[in-house]
Q: What sequence folds into this?
């Protein structure tokens, strides 16, 4: 179980081992300056091939390799 923490201006990151299910499922934790809730996060997300890509701005993005956007749920996120 990993928690990936993102604060304002985190740059361009790629996670290659994010798990969405099971007892070892992971969590994306976003500062409220990035996303205030799940709707805001999903509004910035796109399915690109086999990956989910969150685009915050021209200099800030997050790629989840091999993760389907439709497979993400509330328990995969924390907003602080």
A:
């Amino acid at each position: 179980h990993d928690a990936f923490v993102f604060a304002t201006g985190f740059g361009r990151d790629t996670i290659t081992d994010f798990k969405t299910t099971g007892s070892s499922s992971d969590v994306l934790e976003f500062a409220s300056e990035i996303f205030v809730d799940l709707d805001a996060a999903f509004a910035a997300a796109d399915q690109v091939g086999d990956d989910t890509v969150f685009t915050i701005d021209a200099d800030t993005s997050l790629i989840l390799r091999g993760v389907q956007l439709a497979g993400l749920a509330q328990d995969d996120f924390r907003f602080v």
User: Anything to note?
Assistant: The longest strand covers residues 51-57. Residues 3-79 form one domain.
